[in-house]
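Task: encode each sequence below as structure tokens.

Item 1
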Amino acid sequence: MKPSVWKSSKKTTWLAAIASVVLLSLCGPSTNLWPLCFIGLVGILQIGRTNLPGWKSAVYVSFFAFYFISLQGLRHAHPLMIVPLIVFAAYLSVYPLLFVAMLRRITTGAPGSTSAASNAIRSVPFSIVAAILWVGGELVRNYFATGISVLMLGHSLAGMPSGILLQIADCFGTYGVSFLIVLVNVAVADVVFRNSTRASNPASTEDFDQAAESSDPMSSDSEPVTSSRWPLACNGYITSVPIAVIALGLTYAYGSRALDYPTKPSDTTFLLVGRDEQTEYQQDFQREVDIFSAYARQSITAVRASEKTIDAVIWPESMLSGGQPWNIAEENLTVPPHMRDAGMDDRKMREIIAQSQLEFNRRSVDLISALNGGDTSRSPSIIGGCGLIRYGETAKQFSGVIHIGPDGNVANTYAKNHLVMFGEYIPLIKSIPIAKDMVPPGLGLDAGVGPAVFEVGSLDVLPNLCIETAVERVSVNHMRTLWQKTPERIPDVIVTLTNDAWFDHSSVVEHHLRCAQLVAIGCRRPILSAANGGPTAWIDSSGRIVEKLPLDAAGTIVATPQIDDRVSLYVRHGVTFALPMGMAWVCGLFDLLRTKRKKK
């Protein structure tokens, strides 16, 4: 029977690209049709393998719409954020475009390459090559331009009720889940389109290379081809289906075993406090005080009403400041010239900082006293988001986390390591003498260095702040740093504080929560998330949501997390799995650029 031909037209190209983004969108938080992720890439896989015309605009525009709509909630943070949103969506859309370009490069051949090189590429099953290219792009995206992990392909499975296929993230991170999804997509594409795009096995390598010479993988005007030039032994359902079935089987078996791992009960209880307080980009002092008071009243009521003894009350990002940042005088404190000219010396400045600390601690003591209701045996500590200012040779301002002990004194601090580009800093702005003075408040923050550990009851707590759970490597690197330093004692729980009221209950908030679920699996640690207008949730070490508050309501969660003593392979070895794929992706990019330059 003569194989049918997939009709080659720009309309078909657009339909294939749009189908992919629609299916991936339906895997999102609002609909959570997670099984569709296993067919979501079929459209662009076919575009890459059948060389349909007009593919560049179809793929790029479709994915731009996907990222723009998925992340449109970012625009609520500030009127000017619409510009970074457009830039962000335009940037993310480059990766699917390059993925398709690299597939075209492989399936249509490599002009000017040797037969040995062509054979080497074609000796690897196509599904493996496609998975390597997709995951390699995700790795580059997670590091380049400060990096972001939101909307990785693996996150589309976060809504899977059992989470059984997600458990490989403790070995490979979200990259492993993405790899699996691509393998299944290729198998589905090969089965569905086996008559229209099934591989043709050239009579010889020379015939393959000769046919490839006339094709430019980055051109939209190439002659459409109706069959993939990949040897039958390494393409089609003959290899892709067994590979996908084996991968799914092994993943399922590993997930079953991982979910059965015995965790231990803890004797430490946390109170997660969530509200939906409106915040402003430039918030006045009184508004900060009002927000602090609202959180204080809710916490006092909840702690006194709790049947369990609360060991720590968790407040979201920035909510603990109340107009009072925590000021620290370093040993190398230097008075700025303009203050010295006004009569300020080192001694006076240290006295002022000491007085500010005294007032901060006094307020904290009063809050602890109100929480325990006069019963000092039930005094909880407080972990909350608060501004930090360190006065050394220069004054440095951080978005931070403060740990206030049961005695009301500051026990420890953490300075946010990963800042939000354009939201908390502008690249290189401090290097421009005139421009740095024009930076509005909140955009001049400094980045902290390294993790911190808070001792709460019998547990060690790793604090994260804001976007840091949406940049997967931050938590993983913190855990690895601490494990390498003291392998016998690494954090038992990750506490993340965020203020997602900026995003007005949009899907950005839920995407943030999905990132936290995969981080919990990757680190094999429960995550306690306290959020303002966002995902106040208790996530166990298998990434399952134990309890979650509505985004638009005030409430509390009493969490006594189970202790997981596993040190995951992902924590031990980081991105070792994905690193070669990232290198392969970079090589592929250089090869595309070389080909374009050579053609010109």
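Item 2
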Amino acid sequence: MSDTAESWRGKRQEIAEEQDTTVALRPASRKLLVELVRPYKWMGLGLVVAVVAEAAASLAIPYLVQQVLDFGMPELADGDGSSLTRLLLLMGVAVVVQTVGRVAFIRGSGVVGNNILLSLRRRLYEQFQRLSIGFHDRYTSGRAVSRMTSDIEAVQELVMQGLDVVVASGLTIVGATVLLLYLDWRLALVAFLTYPLIFWLLHWFTRASTRGFRAVRTKSATTIVQFIETMTGIKAVQAFRREQRSRSQFRQVAGEYRDANIDVMRVFARAMPGIQYIGHIGTVVVVLVGGLMVLRGDLMVGVMAAFVLYLRMFFDPMQDIGQFVSSLQSALTALEKISSVMEERPEVADPERPVPLPVARGELRFDHVRFGYIDETVVLPDLTLHIPAGQTVALVGTTGAGKTTIAKLVARFYDPQEGAVTLDGVDLRDLDAPTLRGHVTLLTQENFIFAGTIAENIAFGRPDASREEIEAAAAAVGADVFIGEMPDGFDTDTGKRGSRLSAGQRQLVAFARVVLADPAVLILDEATSSLDIPSERLVQNALNTILADRTAIIIAHRLSTVAIADRVLVLQHGRVVEDGAPSELIGGEGRYADLHRAWLASLA
């Protein structure tokens, strides 16, 4: 829920992350950028050539205009049109080169830029998949979505516009300045009087827009977090009638996002017209001074015309550079955030030399295992446990006793700080992920049902399974009965997160997945706690099938599920305080007997 301390802590973490960024790229960010660009270095060189050719052709046109006015036209008046023809042909060539260069750059940069972005999206997506559960537990979904959307879009501006602005605008400004001095140094000095104002305004604009864009990114991230958080918990929002409160919070963060964007637009509204205004003033002054020089015969008309054209070529790119410098801050900030994710290393990493385990019997051992989550007390202080292959073990105990932690260690979502967890005598840390996932499967009370058909969801663990194998797996757990009643049978669309299926039906689909995947070790974490009695009976029947001939760890508060276990472990503060068959513990005076009597009383 959006009101919880955890959610707001995540938002504060997101905001702090957004505000701690700077323009300077860290070595990791530079390395990432180089790796992305390196495959396209030759195409990039071709783009630079296209931009340089376009800029050179653009700079040549005012000079050719000057030559036409000062030499071509007078010679034509004297009856010689050869110079004018030659100059007009050169102008035509310059226009063609400029056009071809622009077309080549737009098409080439589009291909290169989008390929780079595709590579970045793939790498980031694969990195998110590669990182351990511990990372995803602390990294909010809003931050992950922000990395994949707004941050990628910010980098897109850098990739798609950077080369054009830096090379083309830079060449144009430098070239125009040099040619102004070449045409007439006296008039150039007059034009240069506006340069300090332009550079001061650009400096102010860069600083102000940097602060503004940083605020925009902060508010954007907060808005994304608020939206995703509310939509993820929409059932709870509606169940507890928190729509008005959620709307109020979203209005607030969305309003702050709007205000931040308005502030940036105000900066643009001052800077961009300011640059234009200074450019117009400079042009007017140059025209006045140059006009007087023309009247006195100190300046040719063609030089005057070319001078004004070059002056405009100097001022126009200034606006592009100003906007690019501002978006550059946003892009570099985004690149820093993306590279920080790419720098993350899985807390549970594959071994350099994995031990092969093609066939697993399912024997599990905890050898003096000590484990605690980050910033929390130790959950398992010193656990030693042996589960023979093929045995079904139920874990019971109060909340926080360590039941789910044991399940996560067996599934290797985490590694112990001390000791070892072994499968058939092999430390789980010596098995690569495909081998481990092929032998160990974890099912929870909310098994994720993906958008698609029922058949596709059953085959999730074995995509290469035939239709006959899928149907056989469903029949093994009794799921074929309800599937046969569906309008399209196995081809029925499950809806978003299995919304078209009941809780019991979703669990049966998950059990069919297990039968099809056929792991040696199965972990059931509260597999029936959210089911009603009829659904629980269906699932209980399916359990007898899926638990056969495999090692199983069952975590359950409902003792009806525990009853099918061969062995019960009662946990307290991460230690095993009772260990025995359910029938033996029920007849005793221990903790499990108390739990069983309380459960019977609840059924009366």
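Check on item 2: The chain has two domains: 5-343, 364-603. The chain is about 65% helix and 10% strand.
End of task.
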